[in-house]
Amino acid sequence: MRVGFFLKDFTSEKVKGKDYVMIEWYVEYEKPNKFLIEQIAWAEGVADRWITCGKKHFFQIGGWLEDPDGGWRNEINKFLTLEKYINIMKANVVESAEKYRNREMELFVLRYTPKDMKAFMDVKNSDNMNYQVELWFDKEFMIVAASVRIKDGQKTDIEYRQLFAGYNRKFDIKEPEDVIQ
Fold it and tell me: The pTM is what?
């Protein structure tokens, strides 16, 4: 599967010129545990890449280095997959559903307003915070896009936007051959 994931922070002037995108992740993923991830953190002005093959993690700074722990990479890898949206669907009732047709393309959107976002990520719920989730499906009911908006009061502070493609595509994710020892 190929994934594009964008985290927007509408409270940050630092990334206003980047359409408020703080972090972008581009992912190639093969089940059960192979990842190739490119991460661009616009707020910090840094970019990096890593490969996970099972329990082995490699990151690129000039050359490839092995990260024997890989702990935080495991968390991000898990966060970038579909499972969090499946958990939202299991834990919540659909608030609304719509069908869109544009020429040959037919899409369906399911909307949720979860009270508890622990299915999505470990966030602190407060009385002021509310969450809106949209899941977009193609005619085979495969998720093609998702968005999660976190609002404090009436305005959106944070938005996660994720795009999915290449479900049936085979990627060649393997350990780098030129690991620096």
Answer: 0.88
